[in-house]
Design a protein that fits this description.
Largest sheet: 10 strands, antiparallel
Distance between the termini: 27 Å
Structural class: mainly beta
Strand content: 35-45%
Length: 206
């Protein structure tokens, strides 16, 4: 196995937490360059559903399956968060926030962003994630309810579509702290300041 790992040394610990959702607006996403602004922390995390979507096409010959071709179609992201400030809505949905007013238009376009977070495992370690590019073009679900004897606290749910970046086809980077080896110095350095930038495998320590 890669880097001398063995089945006995692999750690498989269940997820039991989610925190520190960050977003970074993209400043470049072309065939030759990828760059983002400094990440900012979003609202407090409640839950996240990250679903990679793949299509499978079988090729037939001689009355049987000759090959199976898989293609990445994108990643669906659904986040439940405590609440969104108007500044968050400007970043996520391209809405205008100016002089204290949040103004929504039918012509608003959600900008390309990267999204990062960390998820806790039962052993106390974390898995760190960045999704390289996507848009929360599906908007946000807002719920309101009158106050009764028992206060009902509401949250926000946002849905987005993420995809591979143009430069090299990469769409996600993950570091599982539970399975880091002594030799994985770049990855260890990266997770000490994971949200300072959108991380790259080849430049994690830079």
């Amino acid at each position: 196995m890669a880097e001398g790992n063995t089945a006995e040394s692999i750690v498989r610990s269940r997820y039991c937490g989610l925190r520190d959702i960050h977003v970074a607006p993209l400043t470049q996403n072309t065939q030759t360059a990828y760059a983002s602004a400094t990440p900012v922390k979003l609202a407090r995390a409640i839950s996240a559903k990250i679903s990679d979507k793949w299509s499978v096409e079988k090729v037939y010959s001689d009355d049987g399956t000759e090959d199976s071709i898989t293609s990445y179609e994108g990643t669906e992201v659904e986040l439940e968060i405590a609440t969104l400030a108007p500044q968050d809505r400007a970043i996520l949905f391209g809405q205008l926030y100016e002089n204290g007013f949040l103004v929504k238009s039918k012509d608003d376009l959600a900008p390309e962003i990267a999204i990062g977070f960390r998820s806790k495992r039962r052993n106390g370690k974390y898995e760190f994630t960045w999704l390289y590019c996507g848009k929360f073009g599906q908007g946000v679900d807002d719920e309101f309810e009158t106050q009764a004897e028992k206060v009902a606290v509401k949250s926000n749910t946002i849905k987005g579509d993420f995809y591979d970046r143009q430069k090299d086809g990469l769409y996600q980077i993950v570091v599982d702290e539970s399975n880091l080896l002594e030799a994985n110095t770049d990855a260890k350095t990266a997770i000490t300041d994971w949200f300072s930038k959108v991380q790259e495998k080849e430049q994690a320590a830079g």
